[in-house]
Design goal:
This protein is about 75% helix and about 0% strand. By secondary structure, the protein is mainly α. It is flat.
Length: about 290
């Protein structure tokens, strides 16, 4: 009977905890979703509807006019070309980013060498340096490499991101060392162990790191604006190109919201496809 009473009390505590957690999370979700829903609704409103019902989440007069305007003038505003540029630049960056940070994470988690923890702490401390400090020296490097205006300037710099290194190292620390030691006894080298054992076990961590890297590159505005310039419209990324369009139309709130929705849709779809692996990876990264 005592065990049953203890079990019932624990179940009641668990139910109360879930109720409290749900009560806290529901307002947070609503606050997060409201701007997105408002922007989506505004993109489908007419000018009259925006003026009369600015805060409404349901369009009175549904229209696709702004989406048509956004895509029809491809000579002046090649939105599809900007979308393609952003996708392949972010995808190429993500692949290189995963390769570099996973190799570095393997070294910091599996390999034993003097000063490993001190060096890793020093690398982590670079996260405290504001990114704007690197803009001038980075631009000078791109000039020397003759990469100004080239997609390489958006892909190569930053592939060794420290946050991605931290996530991958924390996950690699959870992999049993017995697996690595067994492979070494069989004569496998570190590259063989890395590609055949460690990486296949790290799909969720790779998904998390890749998603964060993709989002960082996709949403970047300042660096593409500096390195690409405004001379070649077709070389712009989506964030830079849409900002130019908004500047041209000035006060068209509906078109601004339409452009924002277009830029958000690809990453939202990417998250929906990978959300299970992402949640799993984040949960496992904090365990040791």
């Amino acid at each position: 009977m005592n065990n049953e009473n203890v079990l019932r009390r624990r179940l009641r505590r668990g139910q109360k905890s879930r109720i409290v957690t749900t009560a806290i999370l529901i307002p947070i979700v609503i606050i997060w979703l409201l701007p997105l829903l408002w922007g989506l609704a505004t993109s489908f409103k007419t000018d009259t509807d925006i003026d009369a019902h600015l805060l409404s989440l349901i369009p009175r007069d549904f229209t696709l006019e702004r989406y048509i305007r956004l895509f029809e003038n491809s000579d002046l505003y090649p939105v599809l070309r900007w979308l393609f540029n952003s996708v392949y630049i972010a995808a190429a960056y993500t692949v290189l980013h995963l390769l570099v940070v996973s190799l570095a994470a393997y070294a910091f988690s599996v390999l034993e060498f003097k000063g490993r923890n001190v060096l890793f702490t020093a690398v982590l401390s670079t996260m405290m340096i504001p990114g704007v400090i690197n803009l001038v020296p980075m631009y000078n490097m791109m000039v020397r490499f003759n990469w100004v205006g080239s997609p390489l300037a958006l892909i190569v710099p930053g592939v060794a991101g420290v946050s991605g290194l931290f996530i991958m190292r924390q996950f690699f620390m959870n992999i049993p060392k017995s697996l690595v030691e067994s492979a070494q006894l069989e004569g496998a080298g570190h590259f063989s162990i890395f590609f055949r054992i460690v990486l296949p076990l790290s799909s969720s961590a790779l998904m998390v790191t890749g998603l964060f890297g993709f989002l960082a590159n996709w949403n970047d505005y300042m660096w593409p604006q500096i390195i690409l310039g405004a001379e070649r419209v077709t070389s712009m990324t989506l964030t830079v190109g849409l900002s130019q369009m908004q500047g041209s139309y000035n006060y068209d709130l509906g078109l601004t919201m339409t452009a924002a929705i277009v830029s958000a849709v690809p990453v939202l779809l990417l998250f929906l496809v990978t959300q299970e692996k992402v949640i799993e990876g984040i949960a496992h990264t904090g365990l040791k």
